[in-house]
Amino acid sequence: MIYTVTLNPAIDYVMHPVSLDMGFTNRSSSEEVYCGGNGINISTLLNELKVVNVAFGIAAGFTGDYLIKTLQDNGVSANFVRLKEGFTRINVKLNGIVMTMCNGMGPVITPDKVDELLERLECIAQGDTLILTGSIPKSLPEDMYDIIMKRLENRGVRFVVDAPGALLLKSLPAHPFLIKPNNHEVGRIFDASPETPEDCIPYAQKLHDQGAQNVIVSCGGHGSLLIDEHNEIHICPTVKIKLENATGAGDSMVAGFVAKTQAGASYDEALRFASACGTATAASKGIANRATIDRISAELDALIANK
Q1: pLDDT tens-digit profile of 117-153?
Q2: Active-site residue (options: 12, 73, 251, 268)
Q3: Ramachandran quadrant class, 2 (left: phi over 0; alpha: psi -120 to 50; beta: rest)
Q4: Is residue 80 part of a domain?
């Protein structure tokens, strides 16, 4: 079984302003509403792939009610701790000439609700995969992921971590099955400016040597890199698309890779499918549907075959 954890989910309110002038009233040509949060994005794509999974998280208020109901209506199994006060944050995304975002803070999460979440995670057992992704809310301990992993250590659980900076580095002693920074995150960690998968090899190797079993580094239009648990290097190109939405592309890569490896695919095949999932979401308004993933996957296979 695959489990995801979203500690600070959101309702993403996407607006398409005709123009954007500070200090004036601006008009939007259209709007969309999505359930957001890295773990939720992963669960949503896994659900699209018909891969059974459970989304854990913390929600509050009327926005939390909407989020849980929407997930359940879409077939995602949601196991969320409910807070007594506050409300699940709303992130406003202004998709104009460039994407501009204003993300909410989110509710205060009290210690008793943290304990309740940890108790719910006790169902995770040997052979299960737990995906920890996204930033930690300010009301939670900075080492929240470490707390979760230490609680579940020695159970044979596969950990997947996709988190920024220090959070990612702190996870490495737990030997996660997969980490997936992008090239810019790798650059911030190592004070460098890698752009291509080839540029990222020495930095991914360092992360691998520090404990990660598999390291994927996504590099946008340049493609992606995988150093697998056998220390073999895989590089995958990217299908050229019209970018519709960068939100959730990295999460979709994680979902695709985990789904394929759980099904017994080779690492090369899993990286290709992960790349197709990420690109498909980037070409969609929300998380990609299966038809788009299959189309992009076929285009990627043709691109690789013709190289």
Answers
A1: 999 999 999 999 999 998 888 888 888 999 999 999 8
A2: 251
A3: beta
A4: yes
